[in-house]
Specification:
Its main location: secreted. By secondary structure, the protein is mainly α. The chain is built from six helices and two strands, in the order αααββααα.
Amino acid sequence: MKLFILLLSLTLAFADHHEGHSHDHDHGSGYVVKTHEDLVRFRNICAEQVHASAEDVAKYVKWDFADEEKSRCYLKCIFEHFGLFDATHGFDVHKIHEQLAGGSHVDHADEVHQKIADCADNNAQGSDACTWAYRGGMCFMRSNLQLVQQSVKA
C-alpha cells in the first residue's frame, strides 16, 4: 500500500497533484482537497514560520523529519494549513482520509481509515501541539509513506 503526509505531510500530509484542476474538491464533508501547489505554498509559509534553513527544508522535502522542535513545529504548521490538525482537537481523521484519496470517494470503514485513526491519538500524554502533530504524522508515515508521497507527488 502507498503512503504524507504529512500529513502528514500528513504530514501531512497530504495534497492532490492534478495540475489544472480546481481547488473545489469538496466531497460533502466541507473539506477541500489540497493540491501540490498548495503544498509548495504551505512549505514556504511554514519554513519561514519556524525559521527553517535551506538545509532543513531540503530534508523535509525528502520526508526526513528529525525529532526536534523545529521539525515538529514545521509538520504541525503544514497539517494546520492543510486543515488536517488543530492544536485543540488534534487530527481530523476523515479529512486526512479524503486528502489521501485525492478527491476520490472514501470508505471510512476501510483499512486506510483505521490506520489513520490508530495514529491520531487524543494526546493523553499532554504533549505540546508540535509534538502531538509530529507523533501522529510520523506514526502514519511509518506505516503508509508511499500513500502520502503519492498524494502530494512532491
